[in-house]
Structures are given as C-alpha cells and as structure tokens.
Amino acid sequence: VERKIKLLIEYEGSAYHGWQFQRNGLSIQEVLEKCIQKTVKQKITLHGSGRT
Q: Is residue 2 part of a domain?
C-alpha cells in the first residue's frame, strides 16, 4: 500500500550539498531517506516542494 506523508522540516545545511540528491556530495534528501528507510525497513523516496 502506497502512502503519502507530509513532513515539515527545517535544517541547518552548511555541511551538505543542498536538499536534492547529488552525485558529488551528501544531501539532506539522501540522509533523510536513509534514516527513514532504516526505520520503516523498506525503500522510500522523498519529494521536496517549496522554497526558502
């Protein structure tokens, strides 16, 4: 069953290479996806929306 869940997050991102997945650096999206996947024990994909 596919579910959509809304997350409202705020972060200090100076140690990352932006929100969206990057081949050449660590992103917020990558870190959050890995943490959530570890918790729910299945593959997930995050989709960002909005701007600062």
A: no
